[in-house]
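Input/output pair, single chain:
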Amino acid sequence: MANSKRDLFIKRRLRVRNKLRKMSAGRLRLSVHRSNKNISVQLIDDVNGVTVAAASTQEAALGFVGKNNIEAATKVGAAIAERAKAAGVEECYFDRGGFLFHGKVKALADAAREGGLKF
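Output:
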């Protein structure tokens, strides 16, 4: 029986997350979520179960409300890097979820790296 697209996405997301969990060593996780209309990212402390910093295109301050393009992803990546530095975080793991590492997800990651995050 064939798996649906959603089932395959969930399997990919869990595979990525489990690999990160095995090698986490207490580092934070930069988790990306991309929908048809928005892109968001969270810096998560899995040990304590708290979100340290977050950024999204739903924030009016970034000026991209409802946009899901490479330019918006770049702004979100720069914003999360700035907020992570303000929280005292320099290193983390990049959790792309079930999304492929290209396009908007790659643009977000590159902008976060340019902003000073190491992963």
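The chain has one domain: 5-114. The chain has three helices and four strands.
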